[in-house]
Structure formats: structure tokens, C-alpha cells
Amino acid sequence: MDAALVKQARAGSQAAFARLVAIHERPLRGFLRKSGWIDADDIAQEAFVAAWAGLHKLRADDGFRAWLYGVAWKKALSQRRGAQRAAARDEAWRGEQELEAATDVAAEDRLALEAALATLPEDQRACVTLCLGQGWSHAEAAEALGLPLGTVKSHVTRGRERLLSVLGGAS
């Protein structure tokens, strides 16, 4: 029965595809729920949308059910990977927030540092910001900024000295 409906759906019949959905919706959702997917309904919905859009990729009309379940399974795995990446990003952000709170520089000191950085020439400020502020190596900064390695080293050394003199004189 699937094969005839698939042929009609491939020819553009939305009614035929709706019938395929009606036939396979409950079993697919049940499979996903029994496989441990809490959001089985959403995954099934995404699988049917993907199946409609990718019906031309189905090799054999009579293999619709297995193909559909494969699409749903891949959607579920992809959703889990996305959730894991989002959780890792959230955890990293929370860690950064905690670190900032623990090492929070007084607003007055932050403003003084920004003002001191503004006194540096543009290239020197970029080198100091990357190497001292963000922990980049001199080689990484040279590559990113398109400057010779020796120039980056000089900019960092001179920039550090300038910042120390400006900030040291401010206190």
C-alpha cells in the first residue's frame, strides 16, 4: 500500500502524502518514545517534513517505512547533538561569568586600562590586546594581523611598557 501512495506523493499529491503520515504517524511516535526521546512528537513532525521535502531521495517506493524511520532517527540524533552543544556553550558561559565575578576588576580600574590602551598606536594596541589581553602567542597575533613576528614582539614589549607607565602614573 505504501508504494502506491509514495508514487502518488512523488507526483505531487499532498493527499497521498497525508495518507502516508496518517498510516505511520502513531507507530513512528511510539518508536521514538520507546527509544527514550522525550520530544518524540517534535522529532516525528520534523521527520515528516524532511520526508516530504526529500521524497525524491527514496530509492524504492516500497521502502518508505524503513526510510522514514531512518530519517526520524537521524533527526533525533542531530537534535541531541545540538542540545549537547547548546548545554556546553551555556556551561562555558556560566564559567566565564563566574570567572569574571571572581576576578572582577573595579570599574575605575577598567576605565583607566581602556584609556591607557587608547593612547597606544593602533597596531600596538591590537598586539597588546591579543597577546596580553587574550593570551595569544606572538606567532598567532602576527598571522592574524599580517605583521612580522618581530614587529609583534616589539609592539607587545613597548605597549606593555607604555601601559605600565600610564597606569603607574595614574595611581
- Cα-atom Rg, whole angstroms? 29 Å
Summarize the main sheet.
none
Distance between the termini: 84 Å
Question: How many alpha or pi helices?
Answer: 8
Number of strands: 0
Question: What is the subunit arrangement here?
Answer: single chain
- The H-and-E topology, N to C, reads as HHHHHHHH
In one word, what is the shape? elongated
Provide a compact summary of the structure.
This protein is mainly α. 80% of the residues lie in helices and 0% in strands.
Fold and architecture overview:
Helix content is 80%, strand content 0%. The chain has helices at 2-10, 14-34, 40-53, 64-102, 107-118, 122-133, 138-145, 149-170. It has eight helices and no strands. The mean pLDDT is 89. 19% of the residues are buried. With 171 residues, it is an all-alpha fold. The N and C termini lie far apart (84 Å). Helix 2 runs antiparallel to helix 3, helix 6 (122-133) crosses helix 7 and helix 7 packs across helix 8.
Keywords:
8 helices, 0% strand, mainly alpha
What is the fold's blueprint, element by element?
Elements: H1 2-10, H2 14-34, H3 40-53, H4 64-102, H5 107-118, H6 122-133, H7 138-145, H8 149-170
